[in-house]
Amino acid sequence: AQTVTQPQPQESVQETGTVTLDCTYSTSESGYYLFWYKQPPSGEMVFIIRQYAYEQQNATNDRYSVNFQKEAKSFSLRISDSQLEDAALYFCAYSGAQ
């Protein structure tokens, strides 16, 4: 079984500057995907970024980047130049590669 854990599963980003959100997971699989989504006040879930387990380079998408540590099973999201539009609830997710 796979589990995903966030210290604060619903973390709202409101301040400006650089923000880091932490996520850890557990799995016995070697190939998988990890995702970050955000849910703004309007309610829809918005895809932010995806990391494949076998990719050596950390994924980036505009102001978003991840720090993926496969051995430590850690997958943190970094939001640079945080803006008011980033005020939302953030969720990390896991998916098997099959």
Q: Describe the main β-sheet briefly.
A: 4 strands, antiparallel
Q: How much helicity do the residues have?
A: under 10%
| Portion in strands | over 45%
Strands, total number: 10
Helix segment tally: 0
Mean pLDDT reading? 89
- The rough form would be described as globular
Spatial strand order of the main sheet: 2-10-5-6
Q: What is the CA–CA distance across the termini?
A: 15 Å
Which ranges are low-confidence, i.e. pLDDT below 50, for 5 or more consecutive residues? Answer: none
Alpha carbon gyration radius = 13 Å
SSE order, one letter for each helix or strand: EEEEEEEEEE
- The assigned structural class equals mainly beta
Task: Give an overview in words.
Residues 1-98 form the Ig-like domain. With 98 residues, the chain is mainly beta. Helix content is 0%, strand content 54%. It has no helices and ten strands. The protein has a four-stranded antiparallel sheet, with no helix packed on it. A four-stranded antiparallel sheet has the order 3-9-8-7, with no helix packed on it. β8 and β9 form a beta hairpin. The chain is globular. The model has no long low-confidence stretch (mean pLDDT 89).
Short description:
With 98 residues, the protein is mostly beta strands.
What descriptors fit this protein?
single chain; 98 residues; mainly beta; 4-stranded antiparallel beta sheet; globular
